[in-house]
Amino acid sequence: MNVSDIRKYFIEELKNKNFTKDKSGQETIELIGASFIADEQSIFGVPNKQYIDKEIKWYQSGSTNVNDIYGKEFVKAPEAWVGAADKYGNINSNYGKLIFDSEYHNQYNHALGELLNNPDSRRATMVYTRPSIWREFNKGGMSDFICTNAVTYYVRDGKLNAVVQMRSNDVVFGYKNDWAWQMYVLKNMVIDWNKDSFAMLQGSIEVGTITWQVQNLHVYSRHFDLVK
Prior knowledge:
Blueprint: H1 3-15, E1 20-21, E2 27-37, H2 49-61, H3 79-84, H4 95-100, H5 107-117, E3 125-127, H6 133-136, E4 148-156, E5 159-166, E6 169-170, H7 173-195, H8 197-202, E7 206-220
Parallel strand pairs: 5-7, 6-7
Antiparallel strand pairs: 1-2, 2-7, 3-4, 4-5
């Protein structure tokens, strides 16, 4: 199954008016237990490259405040981020901090090191969420229960492949931005592998596939007009 199959599923569900309701009462179309090859950067809609670049730079910075997304530009953060933040703009889900920062155990370096030591490994995992999220997701008025659970990397047949496992993913905005981030990390890991002298003795690698696994993949009614 790939993005095209997922697209057809949501089009058919909309046609048949197979809706559920989210916590606010808004109608949604959902797919529980989705698993597909993320071979396109968008399922519905067009990626906003300008915003995606800003978000990735924000992730790189490690800031956990949404007011820093646009840096010194006087532009309000996207509504989805503002709605998840406390009144000061603080959130949990800066993905760069979660995988690069020492506070969360330098997971990127550990995963890369694991693959360099054992290219056949099944342990090259970066864990994004944490058990303590149950106490932290609504701290100070936040509503930010981290959406990505974990990502695992595999070197197979000269390619680096990733399996992204998510708790929840909005098809329209969430998928496009999350895909861009995961592709950024995947490409950087390939670059770092190919720069390592020991790894090069084993041969260079290329960017492989991303398998996208989501416990709940959904489209909100406000985006039904894009489902086509």
